[in-house]
């Protein structure tokens, strides 16, 4: 946006076209999108436009659950958004009457990460499908909660530290804080690396050719240096004692 401002490409209706005005415009846009919920309302209205279906994901989680793993969903999103998007992304791919909530030992919405990993916020239980909540002080298996803390999760499941594998897509909010404060094992989802990984796989043959060419270059370089040294000695009428290592 700064580059666009410098190039005169920022619309005048955003306000004064200086750096302070640009900062204010971006701040207002972020506030409307996240705090007022404008972005999530648009996504909920047209989930197919924003969600790329992955039929294997809910089935993979179901496999983990059936193998005896305890799965948790911890999200900063509120209940209405979480329920809408999980219904859309998961339920149609699950067998029989299994719903997305059946996959998880516990679901925590409005978690307020990264504070969730450091502080203890009030805990509420979501008791109705329209999001009605009531205060509570103890969590139970299969429950749906809002707020709370990571310490509460550890206590309720009687597991701690590296017994927990936390999977997240934000390197600070998810991965860094859960490891630093709780010593949880972590896994980072970084979709941006998919194209790079695929490119590495596809370029395997070219990489081998490149390694071979580099090795040949080193041999030619060594030979060239020997020949240059021999020429220098001959030009100075000195004995040519240079050995040809390559025959």
TrEMBL record:
SUPFAM superfamilies reported in the protein's UniProt record: HAD-like (SSF56784)
A Pfam match: 5_nucleotid
InterPro entries reported for this sequence: HAD-like_sf, HAD-SF_hydro_IG_5-nucl, HAD_sf
Keywords on record: Hydrolase, Magnesium, Metal-binding
GO MF terms, alphabetically ordered: hydrolase activity; metal ion binding
UniProt KW Hydrolase keyword: yes
Family, as annotated: Belongs to the 5'(3')-deoxyribonucleotidase family.
UniProt xrefs under PANTHER family: 5'-NUCLEOTIDASE DOMAIN-CONTAINING (PTHR12103), HAD-SUPERFAMILY HYDROLASE, SUBFAMILY IG, 5'-NUCLEOTIDASE (PTHR12103:SF22)
Name of this protein: 5-nucleotidase
Organism: Zea mays (Maize)
